[in-house]
Structure formats: C-alpha cells, structure tokens
Specification:
The structure is a homodimer. Chain A is an alpha/beta fold. Chain A is 34% helix and 27% strand.
Chain lengths: 324, 324
C-alpha cells in the first residue's frame, strides 16, 4: 500500500467507539488520529490518544473522516450536525422511524459546510438494509422478513437508560420459536409475531419500578409494538449475567418469478460482539466516504448510495479479478 | 409511476432470454421493445415481438438498454463488443478466470462508442460477488467460502455442449456432504473438497464417448480442478429426468474482530429456476445502467461500481423510509 493512510477520528468512547479502535487496527490502509470524548480525557484508559471533544475542531487538517460513535437516542441529533460542520462523517443512527428527519438535518448541514455524511451505517440499518434492497430489486414479487436476535440491542438498551430512575439496562431481542420455519413456508408475520423483547433493568435508589415499567413498555418505535417483559435486577446481577454483547439476525425473502416458481434468499449474522461488528462496518464505510468526498461529493448519503467497491481496500481491478 | 418506462431489448432467446421476458413483466417501470435472435424469427413462439439480430441497429432509438442473454463460453465474446457499439448493455459473462480480459475488451468498446456496459451480472458472478465484497470489507480477518448447488450450472452445461460430438448436456454442481458444517467450524476447504460435478451427456451419432469424457474432465477453468463424473444418457432420458433448472448456493465468512471473538455471515439462495432468477438480476441491473448512463457514465463496470439504490424502482427517499 503506497497510498497515504486514511486518518480517522472517533467521537464517543462507549462500546461502539472501543470497537472502532479495534476495527481500525485490522485495516492497514486506515489510521486512528484520536478519540474524542465528553468525559475528562485523563480518566480514559485507551492505547490511542484521547482528547476532549471540545478540541475536535483543531484537528481539521489531521482527520479525513470522523466516526460518530454516540447512540442515536441521545447523542447523534447534536453530535451529527456539529461534527459535519468541520468533517466528513459516518454514523450509526438507528431509530428507523426518525431516519428521514435525521437525513434532512444532516443533508442540510453537510451541504452548507461542503462535507459528506454517510448516515445509518451498521448491520440494521446497514447491511440488512442493503440485503432488503437487493432482495426486493431482484425478486419484486415476494415478501421480505427480518428477524433480530437472540441478542442485545444497543439502541433499545440505550433508550431504556435514558429514562429517569434507570441506573443501567440491557435489552434482549428474541425471535419467537417456530417463526423462522413459518416464514420459510411462506407465512408473513408481523414483527410483533416474530419477536419478543426482554429488558433487565437496574433502578436508581428511590425510583418507582411500576412507573418505569410503564415508560418502557409504552415507548413508541422501541417497545410499544412488542411483547415486552421488564425484570429488575441488582447492579451485580446485571454485570455478572448480562455483560456479553452477542447478537444476530436474519433477512429472508421468498419470491416467485412465475406463479409456483419459488426463489428464496436468506442472509444471516451470528455475532459474538455486536458493537465490534457494527464498528467494523463503520470503519469500512469511512473508507468509502473518504473516496467519495475526495471525488467532490457532499451532503448526506446512505449505504444505498455507495458503490460497494468503495468499501474495500482492494483496487477495482483486484476486486474484479479476486472477488467477482 | 409518471416517468417514462425504461425500454429493454433482449439479445438471445435461450433459457436466460426467456427468463428476462418474464422478469420484465414483474417490473412496471420496464418495457420490452423486442427479442433479437440469430435464428429465423418466424420459428420462435414468443408473446413479444421477435426480430433477427441483424436488425438490431435500427432499434437504436427504441431501446435504452440491451440485455445480452448469450452464454459466455460461446456468444458473449462477440455479442458483447458488437452490441455495445450501439447500446448500453448488461451481460452475465461468467467465466471467472476470463473476466479481466472480457472487462478490458468491453471497456474499450464502450468508451469508444460512448456507451455503458455492466458485465458479469447474475448470482455468481453477481450477488455472490457483492456478498463476498461486503463480508471481506467488514471482516478483514477471516475466510470466505462459497458453495454452489445442488443445481444445474448453465455455464458448465453450455461448455460441454460446445464439444464436437455432444448433442446435449446437463451439469450438476453438488456440495459434498459435511463440508458446510466443517466450514462453520472454521475449516477452510478447497473448491474441489467442497463440491463434485456430475455431467449427463447425449452423444451425437458416431461420437466417441471415451474421448469426449476426456475433453470434459480435463477442461480448464470448468472441470479440471474437480471430481467430475460423466454419464451418457439418451435424449429421452435427459429430457425426462434432467430438464428442471433448480440451483442454489451459499457464501459464508467466519471472521474475528479480536482473537476469539467470532463473527459469522451466511448468505444462501434456494432457486426453483436458475435462469429465471439470473434474468431477474439482469433486469434490475438494466435499471441501474439506464440511470448511470443517463448521468453520463461510459465504459465497462461491474456490480461493484453500482450504487445499490439504482437497482431499485423506488426513489432514494422511499428507500430511506421503507428499507433502511
């Protein structure tokens, strides 16, 4: 690799940010300039340089693309527009229902500053979205069904943690028994019929369990459409039994090219670490952003707009020879 | 849909061309101008207009994109460069080892005439290639393994049929027992260790079975690297027992984001009709070619160069809202 490395900044050093540090190390064409945090940098133990997020702007000439590693339920609404005023960005905004509004906000901010913002990257939204698009484009007559889990949803866990009185929380998305087989046979089931959501919550001292349960199970977009159980546990139990972050899921389409001629496409993930995998996708996406921004593109885009080859470290010629 | 329909021409009316007619009917934004054949058009029974391929050039203003439905072992080396002199094209060139040379030929011809040529579209090369790229880009440390079958390979059947003395042939690619499970456990197996190839061949009168068997099993790229069996059958038996065209396959990657943290991606197809499914991909690809060519792009490209959203009939805004 004789080209200069692409220099990345990580904003936010939670699970996703930590995964991004690891992912960058697996890609020899990428380099990490620094981690930027709202916390006191001196309190953070990382093998890479850590700075206060307030210092970010002075790294304008030292960072090619910023990875926004905040959660969409809280951070990205501000972090996204702030960062794209000075940098090209990749984020994992994952509140599906609010994506169109977030897109408009980021598109306006990115166009105004002449930057490129690739939003909603990860595996859902992200890889699963791409698969849904390919499946529908090549099999226009048919049904696509997505399963999530069993696994911890960062976005849903984060949403619970925003409720006043909640000290900590982990949410598992669990596909319901027999639903995958029923879909293979051609049934179409609602998301609620395919999954349930199990929440393990640590209360702050004096918080009211009943009202917090109601806040969770009625939360729109996140829980109100699902069978949701809430179990209150101690901080110790949460740490001991719910600290792993496995996940997985499946996108299936069963279509017909002529009546009775069935064609099935099945894409599935089995992940030991959801944040490390999600971060790996953000890092590959940063490579694409750098290339497209270098070509002059500005505004907000999604993975639907990215020529797949831009995600790979290989040249177009090598891709045709090796992977086509 | 208020936009004008995209007008397609089909060159070659074998299994793939017939599948393309069916696929176009499933897409309301696409229209079929005509089928072009080297045979006498009056001998072809199709519900759409059929013309001699020699008439193609006079349809320059009536066709937006030509679907090249010949086989790569025989037709596309000529059909591709000929067609792209006058039209934007999509083809399914599938001899993996010869793709770089075919790309160069098509790129030069397309640039010279100011057209766009999307080559090697289908499911392998095609959808499987895209999955291999995504898998490797997001999990750079790991191994990707492709399985094909059980199913009829059009390209391999076609290659056998080119041998003098062969009247008809069908080739099945068959994944070997237990190989999928071994790959799931982390083994890497060669293509030869994962599959065998079974050929059913009808001889022409007076043809020599032994020499034809040798021609098949030693054929480079197609058979020489595989355990291949050749069974000679009557024309009647081939028609009765080997006329279906099911297929399928699987692309798996098992990677690690940190040592011991495994992340697995699994993409699989189960197809009642290989040519109808392949044709459905070509038809979606033609939509992308029309959009990219309208934007001024020329030369040869592959699916690695196509922003995925261009494959879909939905608008970018609708895609973000509905599929992201």
């Amino acid at each position: 690799m004789t080209e200069k490395k692409i220099r990345l900044g990580i904003i936010g050093y939670g699970n996703l940010g930590k995964g991004a540090v690891l992912a960058i190390r697996q890609n020899p064409d990428l380099a990490l300039t620094g981690i930027f945090t709202r916390r006191d940098p001196s309190t953070i133990d990382a093998s890479s340089p850590v700075y206060a997020v307030s210092e970010l702007e002075r790294f304008r000439d030292a960072i090619d693309v910023c990875l926004l590693c905040g959660g969409s339920a809280r951070d990205l609404d501000r972090q996204g527009p702030d960062a794209v005023r000075h940098f090209h960005t990749v984020d994992s905004f994952d509140t599906h229902a609010r994506i169109p509004a977030y897109y408009e906000t980021m598109d306006a901010a990115a166009r105004a500053s002449g930057h490129l913002a690739l939003i909603s990257v990860g595996w859902d939204p992200g890889l699963f979205s791409l698969i849904r698009l390919f499946e529908e484009a090549v099999l226009p007559v048919g049904d696509t069904v997505t399963f999530w889990g069993k696994g911890v949803s960062q976005g849903h866990s984060d949403a619970i943690r925003q409720i006043p009185g909640v000290a900590a929380a982990v949410q598992y998305t669990i596909p319901l028994d027999d639903a995958i087989d029923r879909v293979r046979q051609g049934d179409t089931l609602s998301s609620r019929e395919r999954h349930r959501r199990d929440c393990f919550v640590v209360l702050e001292d004096g918080a009211d369990a009943e009202s917090i349960t109601q806040r969770i199970v009625t939360m729109p977009h996140y829980f109100s459409d699902y069978d949701t159980t809430v179990t209150f546990v101690s901080r110790e139990e949460l740490a001991a039994r719910h600290s792993g972050m496995p996940h997985g899921g499946r996108v299936m389409r069963r279509g017909q090219t002529t009546p009775g001629t069935h064609q099935s496409i099945d894409f599935s993930l089995k992940l030991d670490s959801n944040p490390e995998f999600t971060a790996s996708i953000l890092v590959a996406a940063a490579r694409a952003v750098h290339r497209m921004a270098t070509g002059g593109q500005t505004g907000a885009i999604t993975l639907f707009d990215v020529p797949p080859g831009y995600l790979s470290a290989r040249s177009a010629e090598d891709l045709r020879k090796s992977l086509l």
